[in-house]
Amino acid sequence: MGAAAGAVRPEQILKDLEALWVELGQSDPEKRNAVLRACSMTLLVALDEGDDEQEAAETVAELMHEHPSRSIVLRVSRDGGEALEARVLAQCWMPFGRRQQICCERIEITAPVERLDEVPRVILGVTVPDLPVVLWCRGARLCGEKGFAELAAVADKLIVDSAEFPTAEGGLEFVRKASGRKLTGDLAWTRVTAWREMVALLFDCPETGMTARQIERVRVLHGGSEAGSSAAYLAGWLRATLGGGVLVGMEARREEEGSIVGIEFEGDGMRASVSARGGFAVLRMNEREHRVPFAPQTLSLLLREELGILDRDGWFEASLG
Amino acid sequence: MADANPFVDPLRFARRVPPCAVVIFGANGDLTMRKLMPALYRIHYEGRMPASFAVIGTSRTAMTDAEFRVKMRASVEKFLEDSPFEREVWEGFEPNLFYEPGDVADAGFYARLAARLSVAEETCGTAGNVLFYLSTQPSHYATVVRGIGEARLAEGAGWRRLVVEKPFGHDLESARKLDDAIHEVFPESSVYRIDHYLGKETVQNILAFRFGNGIFEPLWNRRYVNYVQITAAESIGVEGRGSYYQETGALRDMIQNHLLQVMATVGMEPSNIFEAGAVRDERAKFLRSVRPIRAADVDKYAVAGQYGPSRAGGVETPGFREEPGVDADAQTDTYAAVTFYVDNWRWAGVPFYVRTGKRLPKRVTDIAIQFNSAPHSLFAVGGEDGRASARPNLLIMRIQPEEGISLRFMSKYPGSGMKLRPVSMDFSYGSSFGTRTPTAYETLLVDALSGDATLYTRQDMVEASWRAVAPILNVWAGRRFDFPNYSAGTWGPAESDDMLKRNGHFWRIP
Ligand SMILES: NC(=O)c1ccc[n+]([C@@H]2O[C@H](COP(=O)([O-])OP(=O)(O)OC[C@H]3O[C@@H](n4cnc5c(N)ncnc54)[C@H](OP(=O)(O)O)[C@@H]3O)[C@@H](O)[C@H]2O)c1
């Protein structure tokens, strides 16, 4: 019994999921190690026409290991098609050293942009009861579509990437508005965590005699000519942490790539800096220099961090201003 | 007093270790190579080590810093758990490793160590903070502490802490003596007695399960719980450590420390805050409530076992007495099972069955909470084996392997009639959190270096545990057992089953 062409019914999706589990259970002929169903949330992923579907699929697959979820991947098409379509599948993997496969459910829905407003009602019928719903909106354009607000209303948390917006200010403005309405995460802010951690580490060395109180001026160094939203967040965070008496500025390093390329601190008898070099952060405290592993921030690592926070993040709000 | 660092954000990144030096006594030994060095490397790998640190290894064997580094690298490559070895990260870690040879009984050695520490403070910026780690023979503990004291190494600009590995004495009296020797040099607040079971994620998860949820705690008492079983089974034998094990035995090696700590985690009252003092007070209170067994009752409440040879699947397994270094008539318990009672309002009358042994059928550590049966058997005639309906609920917390929690409950078998079947609802730690879990030593080292003693044992807990097992040890010490009394590869001696049978209970097969 399939859905009528162009129509997608939540009950049908749920039935298809049930059938999928029966099939997965039967795939083990010995019936001893039937698959383990894992789910800690509903992860709704909204992809626009032109977004890299392959990258998104791989990212979701990676996320399942730490945040096993029922994922709902919504592809919004802009090619004039009319049909709303859905299919279900399972993602299974065998954890290292174990004998039982773990499986997560995936629902894929395709909808023309004109019918985006019909999607939330379908999604409401297929979210996992009593567990959080997180919406990750991959592209910026979709966030401005009619019907997006209703889609976001289904979720407990919205995750966007302000760095994907045409301008940093536009992206930050969107995030400011969204976070006034609901729990919001911004991957541009998540990218700042690794830098913040290095700053914390820099001031964890009392033997240098260096404390945050000595700081008088800070420069956030960014690549390219314009400061992106991550650099803006970092500067906002430094202002919020250090208070009004400290001058926090931004400086372009045109020849370098990356939204943030370094941070420099100056003050009474102190100079310190953090910069990134080939998988390491270089921490300089007056004459001392140390290298610390500095993990590359893949999309799935950033999302992993955001999915782990389902409460308000005070520093994020303070840095957003 | 340094200003608090305003940049830390526990919501987003884990606690980091302050600048410090770690001095390992026994750095040429098994524990350092298997556990400590891989843990320190991994903490560094995660970027949680401070920018300024030094690790100074010591033991008698002559080695240069360079030779020590080569040896440590080989052991990290070999023993690192669930994690890749990365050359570049090692190269960032290695320059901070040093080695100072010497005998712990030689006063000159501590003077050299003091000089090394000053150099480390200068060159690595360790800020005068020093963690001394006793990873050498327990018989050297008091000597080392005295040496540290006499060389005034327990004082300085930063903090000075001491980590003590088990065993904390071999009975109550020696535990007190050791403690007195330690306190001559270090105050209690600087002493970290390690019980690596408490550092295991899954043992910590017992607290999360009990006190982070509202529905279990109301059932967690004598009114609903019929009995508790704690099993720590090993499938291996003594693995070349026969002569050491011969002097220790299962009761001392496992129950007195690890399993009584696990039992305290299962049975303690909630503390009002999650802070070292408060949590440890509750653990200690529980351990003090464990009823001492009278000498005359030891045979009723405790069973000793020793494995004999066996042959299974074409493999010959020697008995304990045939192991290298073991006496031909060794009286050592390679298996011990004890029924404990806890004299408090929550647990009065509920038996806690604790067993551990070597050469059991498999490696497993778990805790089973057996609840009372339903008060009235509505479906008494159901069930194929006539017993199904009588099976009470069972909650199992698996510590290793396949960490997780299962709840067994009765369900109707599909079809007409009311046939009931026990089914299991499973939570698997690994599948819900795909992340790598830190090893117990990683957790405990970060805690000690950061000054958090929540997961460490305190002297009053150590003494309470010795008091709980002392009567058994005393009776067993004066006895000649008819060993061996179980075959390698079986679940222990029949007397252990009889001990439970007398209460109408039986050991689970985990
Ligand atoms: N191994 C484990 O998994 C484990 C688990 C839990 C607790 N523990 C406890 O941890 C401690 C260490 O255990 P282990 O297995 O590592 O022991 P081990 O392999 O025997 O190592 C002992 C270390 O002490 C050194 N040493 C011996 N006599 C010395 C002396 N007079 N002066 C200076 N150094 C001396 C030895 O090196 P040299 O010969 O070069 O001097 C060696 O480095 C013990 O208390 C044990 O109970 C071990």
Report on the architecture of this protein:
The complex is a heterodimer of chains A (321) and B (510). With 321 residues, chain A is of the alpha/beta class. Helix content of chain A is 34%, strand content 29%. In chain A, the strands form two sheets. In chain A, strands 1, 2, 3, 4, 5, 6, 7 and 8 form an eight-stranded mixed β-sheet that branches. In chain A, strands 10-9-11-12-13-14 form a six-stranded mixed β-sheet, with helices on one face. The longest helix of chain A has 17 residues, at 10-26. The termini of chain A are far apart. Chain B is built from 14 helices and 18 strands. The relative contact order of chain B is 0.13. In chain B, helix 1 (30-45) links the parallel strand 1 and strand 2 (53-59). Chain A binds chain B through residues 36, 38, 40, 64-66, 68, 95-96, 98, 102, 193, 196-197, 199-208, 211-213, 241-242, 279-280, 283, 285, 288, 290-295, 305, 309, 313, 315, and chain B through 2-3, 5-9, 11-13, 16, 18-19, 44-47, 50-52, 82, 88-89, 92, 121, 125-128, 402, 426, 428, 430-435.
Topology:
The complex is a heterodimer of chains A (about 325) and B (about 500).
Chain A: H1 10-26, E1 36-37, E2 41-47, H2 53-66, E3 69-77, E4 85-93, E5 102-112, H3 119-126, E6 133-137, H4 140-143, H5 148-154, E7 157-160, H6 168-181, E8 183-186, H7 187-190, H8 193-202, E9 215-223, H9 229-242, E10 247-253, E11 262-267, E12 270-277, E13 280-285, E14 288-293, H10 299-307, H11 314-320
Parallel strand pairs in A: 1-5, 2-3, 2-6, 3-5, 6-7, 7-8, 9-10
Antiparallel strand pairs in A: 4-5, 9-11, 11-12, 12-13, 13-14
Helix pairs in contact in A: 1-3, 2-10, 3-5, 9-11
Chain B: E1 20-25, H1 30-45, E2 53-59, H2 65-79, H3 87-93, E3 97-101, H4 107-124, E4 130-134, H5 141-150, E5 160-164, H6 172-183, E6 191-193, H7 201-211, E7 225-233, H8 242-267, H9 276-288, H10 298-301, E8 302-305, E9 307-308, E10 310-312, E11 315-317, E12 335-340, E13 352-357, E14 364-371, E15 394-400, E16 404-412, E17 420-428, H11 429-432, H12 440-450, H13 459-477, E18 486-487, H14 494-501
Helix pairs in contact in B: 1-2, 1-12, 6-13, 8-9, 8-13, 9-13
The complex binds NADP nicotinamide-adenine-dinucleotide phosphate.
